[in-house]
Design goal:
Aldehyde Dehydrogenase, Chain A, domain 1, 2 domains, seven-stranded mixed sheet, 25 strands, 35% helix, binds NADP nicotinamide-adenine-dinucleotide phosphate
């Protein structure tokens, strides 16, 4: 049995009290991972002392070059990572590439930003602020790397992208990474780090990997550390309340559950590009990665007089998706990640039904390609219909292949009211060619959303959909989505930095601060 190891203090180490990692297509046990007995305090200190010192000496261009080497090393072994992601995660080839190419794409994007920032090591944020009647006395804002370690705790659904989107920003900011993938799918993260170590890409202490439970990791956090967490709202709340996080003011970013939505505008005819885009993107969100995407659309607002027609069209679109053995090229949806997730998704769907939502499509395991008997963690894609004021639809995230259709009166005000009941989402979409409707939804719903995707006919051919997180754009959301913000180009670096106001004589400050490349 393969034992998943951790990479701490620049060496591979095995921990105890291991949990199994399975292939969810056939329940085969692939490996086991545990972390008890590992000295996490020592590992964090090693990352702070060695990784931090090394990165702070490097210019942005050098950190960017490091990110480019990481991307190259991973891309070279893409096929190995894809195979592992299919086995340990139930991903189809397309799902696996989405995760792995998302990782290398984000690394490459931040590598270019580093190159552009050139020979600086720190940044000045904004222009001089005049602070006195005499223009000589001014203030600048300096942004420097924190002197701690960036602890990254990730969810099971994106073992590659989750690790490297966070690592890219942190390394470019000059802060070493201590990353912990979810145990259930840790094989991809372990293999990816093995490739980097084999290729000799990683400077001492810059990247540490903990596989298995977090154990006492948070007890060793210090005042200059930060934690970026992605996962369920419950775990996020536990981390937020941890004594060390609270008492030492540890910087914390949380990306949590989200009840994302898609709004179909009343203006959208069934023969328009916007309608085609709506159908394609909602169906993709229900089935891609078996619906296990934090950005997946869970609530679909449809003008009441169009409900039957849209339901039928969406059902047809979802029916075209073949479900089964994810290693087969013709299969476009695999199982959910493990038995615990399957039970959670089944319980979520049961809760929807109990609340009065009507299941109008799906149920059971569905028709499966190349799957025998009851093997694997399969569940058919399902659609529900519920009145827009059903409280369960707006409070329970069913993290699987499902969405609920909600009839509404077609006005922007009603759409915004329904969107806001999710109490904060990562992303929502509005499909419309009507400028006034788009304005009404975007401007009024923005306070509840991390990102808004406007799907109009003119972008139908170009849209990657709301579920593709682009490094140029912020990722995160208010309220129940965790209140966090990642990525967004250079905006993402702020979390890993200390912004310090520096006041004094203008010419002196301009000599000592990194105003120009030097
Ligand atoms: P989870 O159970 O909350 O676990 C997330 C991570 O937290 C795992 O690495 C887990 O480790 C770790 N963890 C658990 N208890 C911990 C503790 N007490 N202290 C420190 N770390 C702890 O979530 P999940 O089931 O993996 O992921 C599914 C959820 O993530 C969904 O709700 C989804 O919406 C959300 N998600 C959000 C985003 C986003 O960007 N907003 C992205 C993806 C997923 P173990 O695996 O070892 O238990």
């Amino acid at each position: 049995m393969h034992i998943v190891r951790s990479y701490l203090c620049d060496r591979w180490q095995e921990g105890g009290e291991r949990r199994p990692l399975i292939n969810p297509s056939n329940d085969e046990r692939l490996a086991e991972a545990g972390s008890s007995g590992l000295d996490l305090g020592d590992a964090l200190a090693h990352a702070r002392d060695h990784g931090g010192a090394t990165l702070r000496k490097m210019t942005f261009a050098q950190r960017g070059a490091l990110l480019a080497s990481i991307a190259t090393s991973l891309h070279k072994r893409r096929e190995d990572l894809v195979a592992l992601s299919i086995a340990n995660g139930g991903n189809t080839r397309g799902d696996a590439k989405f995760d792995i190419d998302g990782a290398t794409g984000t690394l490459s994007y931040y590598a270019k930003l580093g190159e552009r920032l050139g020979h600086k090591r720190t940044l000045v944020d904004g222009a001089a602020e005049r602070l006195a009647p005499n223009p000589r006395y001014v203030g600048y804002h300096l942004q420097v790397p924190r002197r701690g370690v960036a602890v990254h705790i990730n969810a099971f659904n994106f073992p590659a992208w989750g690790l490297f989107e966070k690592a890219a920003v942190s390394i470019l900011a000059g802060v070493p990474v201590f990353t912990k993938p979810a145990t259930a799918t840790a094989l991809v993260a372990e293999r990816a780090v093995e490739f980097l170590v084999e290729d000799g890409v990683l400077p001492k202490g810059v990247l540490s990997l903990l596989c298995g439970s977090a154990g006492d990791l948070l007890d060793h956090l210090d005042v200059q550390d930060v934690v970026a967490f992605t996962g369920s709202a419950d775990t996020g709340a536990r981390i937020r309340g941890h004594a060390c996080v609270v008492e030492r003011s540890v910087g914390l970013n949380i990306e949590a559950d989200s009840l994302n939505a898609a709004v179909l505008g009343a203006d959208v005819d069934s023969d328009s590009g916007a309608y085609e885009l709506f159908l394609r993107e909602v169906a993709r969100d229900v089935t891609q990665k078996a619906g296990q995407k934090c950005t997946a659309t869970r609530r679909v607002l449809i003008p009441a007089d169009r409900l039957d027609e849209v339901r039928e069209d969406l059902t047809n679109e979802i029916d075209n998706v073949r479900v089964g053995d994810p290693s087969l090229r013709e299969v476009r949806m695999g199982p959910v990640t493990n038995r615990a997730q399957l039970a959670d998704v089944e319980a979520g769907m049961a809760a929807l039904e109990k609340s009065g939502a009507e299941r109008v499509h799906g149920g059971g395991r569905g028709k499966l390609v190349a799957i025998e008997g009851d093997q694997g963690c399969f569940i058919a894609p399902s659609l529900f219909v519920a009145p827009a004021d059903n409280p369960v639809v707006h409070s329970r995230e069913v993290f699987g292949p499902t969405a609920t259709l909600l009839p509404y009166d077609g006005t922007a005000d009603a759409a915004v009211d329904i969107l806001s009941r999710g109490k904060g989402s990562l992303v929502s979409s509005v499909y419309t060619d009507d400028k006034l409707f788009a304005e009404g939804v975007v401007l009024e719903a923005a306070a509840f959303m991390g990102r808004i995707h406007v799907g109009s006919s003119r972008v139908a051919e170009h849209s990657p959909g709301p579920g593709t997180v682009m490094p140029q754009m912020v990722h995160g959301g208010p309220g129940r989505a965790g209140g966090g913000e990642e990525l967004g180009g250079l905006r993402g670096l702020a979390f890993y930095s200390q912004r310090t106001g520096v006041q004094g004589e203008k010419t002196l400050l301009e000599k000592i601060l990194p105003m120009e490349e030097r």
